[in-house]
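Bug #77: duplicate submission created two jobs. Keeping one. Sequence:
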Amino acid sequence: MPTTALIMRRFKVDELALRRLCNAHPSFLSLCEDYATACCALERWQNDEAKAADYRSVIEELEREISSFLTGGAPIDRSSSAYSTNGPKRSH
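Kept job's structure:
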C-alpha cells in the first residue's frame, strides 16, 4: 500500500493536507516512509513472534511521532527515531 494511503487510513488525515505536510517537512515525509516500511516488515514477520513484537513496538513509537506532528507538536528530530534502515532498535 502506498505510504500516503496508509497514513491517511490510519490517521484519518486529508490527502491534500498530508501531501502539503510531506512537501513542507522532509523529516515528516521520512517519518511516514519509515512507518510504511515498518508496517510492511510486520506483515512479513507475522510468524516470527520476536521480530513481530519488535516491529509492533517500532510502529507504536512512529505512530506517536506522526500523531504529535499532525496535532501541531514540535518538528521531528529524526536522529532519535526508533527505526533505521537496519531494522528496529532494541533496548537491551
